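Continuing the batch. This is chain 6 of the set; chains 1 through 5 are on the previous pages. Same settings as before, nothing changed between runs. Recording input and output for traceability.
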Amino acid sequence: QVHLLESGGGLVQVGGSLRLSCAVSGRIWSIYRVGWFRQAPGKEREFVARINWSLGNTFYGDSVKGRTAISINTASDTVELLMNSLKPEDAGAYYCAASPKYSEEYDTWGQGTQVTVSS
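Output for chain 6:
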């Protein structure tokens, strides 16, 4: 079983930067991808970014592309999400999720961390 724990949310100003962490533990060898998703109140969950656990390949959602970076800190088994130039629409609950090899379906989710963007 894989366990995910997000951290790093909070209040950020418009135009500021955000760094979120997802601590990964458990059966790490079974992971194919780790992704970040977000959900604002009253809206559907939105894909933010993902990274291939073994190869490091990354992919980004259109709304964050060019101002977001996802990476793996192999020393701590943590997936980090760095987002710059924050906009009000970046606010919401951010979740990390893991998919098992070699599935595109995310079957393990963290509890989420809240991000508020103030103007």
